[in-house]
Design goal:
This protein has 11 helices and 16 strands. By secondary structure, it is an alpha/beta fold. α1 packs parallel to α3 (about 75-90), α2 runs parallel beside α4 (about 95-110) and α3 packs antiparallel against α4 (about 95-110). The termini are far apart. The protein binds 5-S-methyl-1-O-phosphono-5-thio-D-ribulose.
């Protein structure tokens, strides 16, 4: 079923969470009901919900669901059990820092709450809702800030994006695709090229689906076609999201992003990373320290029901790569547009 309403992948429904089942798009637009923290962990692991900010929001609700399951009124025992819920959620996916950021924020809320266990639970639910609402607002700001960073000419831009950094990957609206949305709204978009994004095909399945919902002109290409398109002067700028950005501006994003950045550099096409500041991990000096998730090799040797490679070979299936800061023209955040090297200065100013 197609729809024209805004897409919200994580919705709080009074006493449970609805997740858009992203593993079934674009064939089927359906929701999965999540009532228990364990089911939330499983949904993150199996990518029913995916995308850095979206899994942060989902994990925040997962923490509340876990808090609800803990049967004690003793504060100390409650906090100890909540730490276990946090650990279970942390073990779902390693790269996107928003997951860890949201879990830490929820734990901090619990520890700082005074009052009964029941009151702490209520505060946790409010905090999860706040994380959700803030992310939506943040994405709108990123989208609009992106307009200031994009090239001034031509008037109507052709952008290229990788993976899905859209409404489905956030609380709504998206980061990189938020910029595409804002450009479309302002009449500055000719079209967006979506890389298919092997092996999970988030570009082909999710980014194109989101564009279709809103009538945004989109052209699907395979990942290996990007260089050719740039050589033909078909692309004015590249916009991608990020799963974790180190203090020096190195940015981890979906596998294939790094090669796209190299190709963009070779063709003088500006390469932008769009992300909320919650994606910046200031504890990491550079991208070499970012943990890279490796996923099931089945993702690369099996297409649909068909095994596409001979038996007896090795596989390597890293899900993310790190684009060095020097290939990034700017990092677009809710607080403005930063040269990659200026993130640290911003943080120092905030802490002063
Ligand atoms: O494996 P996924 O689908 O969770 O990877 C998602 C991405 O790499 C996105 O580009 C990133 O999370 C940014 S989302 C706004």
């Amino acid at each position: 079923m197609l729809q024209n309403n805004p897409v919200y992948p994580v919705i709080w429904r009074n006493n449970f969470v609805s997740l858009i089942d992203q593993t079934r798009l674009p064939y089927e637009y359906s929701y999965v009901e999540i009532h228990r923290s364990e089911d939330m962990a499983q949904a993150i692991k199996t990518m029913i919900v995916r995308g850095a900010p979206a899994i942060g929001v989902a994990a925040a609700y997962g923490m509340y669901l876990g808090a609800r399951e803990i049967e004690t009124s003793d504060r100390h025992k409650f906090l100890k059990a909540l730490e276990q819920v946090a650990q279970m959620l942390r073990e779902t996916r390693p790269t996107a820092v928003n997951l860890f950021w949201a879990i830490s924020r929820m734990l901090k809320t619990a520890y700082e709450s005074i009052g009964t266990v029941e009151e702490i639970r209520k505060t946790l639910l409010e905090t999860a809702k706040t994380i959700n609402a803030e992310d939506l607002q943040t994405c709108h700001k990123i989208g609009d800030n992106g307009l200031k960073a994009l090239p001034e000419t031509p008037e109507k831009l052709t952008l290229l994006t990788h993976c899905n950094a859209g409404a489905l990957a956030t609380a709504g609206y998206g980061t990189a695709l938020g910029i595409v949305r804002s450009a479309f709204r302002e009449g500055r978009l000719e079209k967006v090229f979506a890389d298919e994004t092997r092996p999970r095909l988030q570009g082909a399945k999710l980014t194109t689906w989101e564009c279709v919902q809103e009538g945004i002109p989109v052209t699907l290409i395979t990942d290996s076609m990007a260089a050719h398109c740039m050589k033909q002067n078909m692309i004015d700028a590249v916009v991608v999201g990020a799963d974790r950005i180190a203090a020096n501006g190195d940015a981890a994003n979906k596998i294939g992003t790094y090669s796209l950045a190299l190709v963009a550099k070779a063709h003088n096409v500006p390469f932008f990373v769009a992300a909320p500041l919650s994606t910046v991990d200031f504890s990491l000096a550079d991208g070499s320290e970012i943990p890279i998730e490796e996923r099931n090799p089945k993702e690369i040797y099996q297409v649909g029901e068909t095994i596409i490679a001979p038996e007896g070979i090795d596989y390597y299936n890293p899900s993310f790569d790190v684009t060095p800061a020097e290939l990034i023209a700017a990092i677009i955040t809710e607080e403005g547009v930063f040269a990659p090297g200026d993130l640290k200065k911003y943080q120092n100013k905030q802490m002063a």
